[in-house]
Amino acid sequence: MQHTQRFFAFLARHKRWLLVISALPLFEVVTAFGVSPDTITQDIVQETVVSAVALPDPVATDSGAFDFWREDRIQPGDTLASLLGRLGVGSEEIPAILGASREQSARFIAGRTVIAKVTSGGRLLLFRYLVDDKNLLTIERTGAGFSARNEITQPDTRVVVRSGEIKYSLFGATDAADVPDSVASQMAEIFSGDIDFHRDLRQGDRFSVVYEIQTDAGRTLRTGRLMAAEFVNQGKSYRAVYFKDPQGREGYFTPDGKSMKRAFLKSPIPFSRISSGFSTSRYHPVLKEWRAHKGIDYAAAAGTPVRAVSDATVAFSGRKGGYGNLIVLKHQGPYSTAYGHLSRFAKGLRNGAHIKQGDIIGYVGSTGLATGPHLHYEFRVNNVQKNPVAVSMPAAYPLDPRYRAQFAAAAAPLVSQIDLLQGRNLTSLD
After folding, report:
1. Strand, coil or helix: what is 27?
2. Residue pair 114/71 in contact by the 8 Å Cβ criterion
């Protein structure tokens, strides 16, 4: 959902470490590290540390040191086979899994999540899907095969508090703190209006999260909602708490009641770098001439989901000259946005359709005048392209004044849980 890119980033992180380890001598490990983008390095003392570590036999421990819990959100049209593929299960495993689960029918409902324990080699160890509040589908490896069963369950909701520190990257830090990727993604989304998680991170930045999980007899069935979070970036603290008002409207707010939801997201693709910025004069790589570049290009792999930066109506979707496959969204007031070079459009997208902020509208491609896969994004005011970094954005959506008392009562215990971790080096508190 929106989650495909995060999943591949997750795999890429762990594969990187596997390559590092496999390249080292058998009984010596030299620590290696990367630096988050724009990290200030001139005052950092660098030190090489050599430690004697007995590495396990990689063949004998494929289901040992490098097993990963993976979680993914179900997309419209998903099947068990497509979910297993996204979770990193090897294609050679899938036929046997489908055969073992043939008698256990389950509808995969879009928006719900599945979790799986998968080895670095793509072998499925365990798969769980909470079909509804009472039924749990479990697929488990048994020797050379698999068993599948439906269980009646009564899940409990528990609150987990965790904290961590940025050393190399956001997801590296959340992995180290045992924070699920889905929670890390929620945190990055909430603070994306204030923090650019590609360019603004620094070593020593800290985070704390309060989130729900559903368990049954000690087994984690799925990760729930992020209830509160704090991110300290370059010494400045940002906090958010979740609130649902009596009319069912929900969102994240600062502890004093200011909405965290911006009228416009900072980027249509989370965690993507800018490959070409807004400019009045740029050498065009295809046309081989100098011309204005009145948009921002985001480097991303083909097929990466592109999201709407704000609530909108689809004003145009189709092929248009050098843009290739193009979507133009009409937002509130004089604002509109354009998304070019797409490989394809989201299923069901049509002119006149109403789109919500964060909805997937298309996928990165290289149609039109493009040398390779990327997204060309334009922010327009009265149909004139503007630099989204420089333009003054509309104000955030406010909290309904009628519910300030209820909000204060709901926010107080969440803020207290965040306060528990201030200045402490705790990694978890259940």
Report:
1. coil
2. yes
The candidate with the shortest Cα–Cα distance to 72, out of 147, 14, 129, is: 129
How many C-alpha atoms does 354 have within 13 Å on its Cβ side?
Answer: 1
Band (pLDDT 50/70/90 cuts) for residue 409 is very high
Token pair for 19:
């390559």
Task: Read off the amino acid at residue 383.
Answer: N
Compute the distance between CA of residue 142 and CA of residue 123 in angstroms, rounded to an integer: 12
| pTM reported for the whole predicted model | 0.57
Return the amino acid letter for 380: R
Q: Determine the Cα–Cα distance for residues 379 and 393; give it in Å rounded to an integer.
A: 11
Tens digits of residue pLDDT in 324-369: 999 999 998 899 999 999 999 998 899 999 998 889 999 999 898 8
- Which residue's structure tokens are 């045992």? 178
- Residue owning tokens 């049954």: 216
DSSP 98: H
Domains detected in the chain: 274-386 (2.70.70.10)
Phi, psi of 131 (to 5 degrees): -65, -45
Residue type present at position 81:
A
Determine whether 336 is exposed, middle or buried from the number of CB atoms within 10 Å of its CB (0-12, 13-18, 19+). buried
Q: What digits encode the pLDDT tens for the residues 267-293?
A: 888 755 554 544 444 444 544 444 455
Asked whether the beta carbons of 394 and 378 are under 8 A apart, the reply is: no
* C-alpha 20, offset from chain centre: 25
Alpha helix positions (H), 282-359: none
- What burial class does residue 9 get, using C-beta atoms within 10 Å of its C-beta: 0-12 exposed, 13-18 middle, 19+ buried? middle
Spacing of C-alpha 110 from chain mean position: 17
- Name the one residue in this structure whose structure tokens are 């899938």: 94
